[in-house]
Amino acid sequence: MRRLTRDEYFLAIASIVAARATCDRLWCGCVLVRDREIIATGYNGAPSGMAECNEVGHLLVEEKGKHHCMRTIHAEQNAIYQARKRLANLNGVIAYINATPCENCLSELLRCGVRRIICGSIYKNVERLEMTAKLTEAFGATIEYRPSPDISLVFGSEVTDVKKIRIDRCP
Ligand SMILES: [Zn+2]
Ligand SMILES: [Zn+2]
Description:
Blueprint: H1 6-18, E1 29-34, E2 37-43, H2 53-56, E3 60-63, E4 66-69, H3 75-84, E5 94-97, H4 103-112, E6 116-119, H5 126-138, E7 142-145, E8 153-154, E9 164-165
Parallel strand pairs: 5-6, 6-7
Antiparallel strand pairs: 1-2, 1-5, 3-4, 8-9
Bound molecules: zinc ion (2 copies).
One zinc ion binds near residues 101 and 105.
């Protein structure tokens, strides 16, 4: 197995973080990195103490013919809350997300100071891609789409009891 690049490394971690998500409409994980160090992680799930989608079902709201699940706090929001407990702003932070952020999360990341966003997959909604491009341009930010690395891992040739990690819930 070749060594992961730094961007692949943080994207792979975002995919593993997403394995903790509780809304199966999109398992999302976000890793916030500053100066090559992880400062916070987040996945989408219900607010602390509330029932989760995987326990009681989604809380769907229709808007313009599309359904959204409103039960969860999104991965990016959770990561931002975690980071903001210690940091005044997110200037210089790179956000690694295994999916494409929604407009609310994207604008909050940008307003907090994030100027580089790296996504491991492309959201199929075309309107969202246009909105995403517009928002990032307005803030002088960049958004990059990279395929998430294959995270089936074998831990070296020196192990006899070979352990493999496979995160099957990630598409
Ligand atoms: Zn849900
Ligand atoms: Zn969002």
